[in-house]
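seq:
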Amino acid sequence: MAPAQTFEIGAGAGTGAYYIIEEADNNAITAYDSPASMFVDVKYNFKDRIDGVKLRLQNTSVHILGRDYQTGTALDGRIESFTTSLLYERLRTDRVFNVGYHFGMGVTQQHFKQVISNGIPAVQDRFMSLTFGGIYALRIHEHLHLNLETGILWTDPINGFRGSENWQTAGEDISFLAQLGLSYRF
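struct:
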């Protein structure tokens, strides 16, 4: 158990599979490259407990090629997503190797810019997102940990339930991310 409340900072990067459902849909004619993802976070660990609250800032970038889901317009561009999340995290830190989890919600700002515009303006969206993930932490030093995080990022879950006529390319979907990072506890 942690003897007192502590603060922790972390940063990392990774990749995964973005927009998994759209990629699996045979009617969608789009292909997404593997995303590049980077994050920084600050965590407050509760006094005498193994859980805490984490504020995470995460940027993910992915290339898309294909046709728009509803209009059939040619797509060739880059999607930049910036997500700010508030997460609840439960992770022991008293052993050399620790396993935990986190979940929470946030806001995602998404910017889609075509490589060749063809008169199509950049599209910006803002929507809610949910995060669920596992954490595998290896203690390197008393205050320093190497972390592997695997998780699901569900973007725009509310619109996902509204029906396929409201869906959009690179919108409401589920993405998998695997990220490697370092955290330092004060």
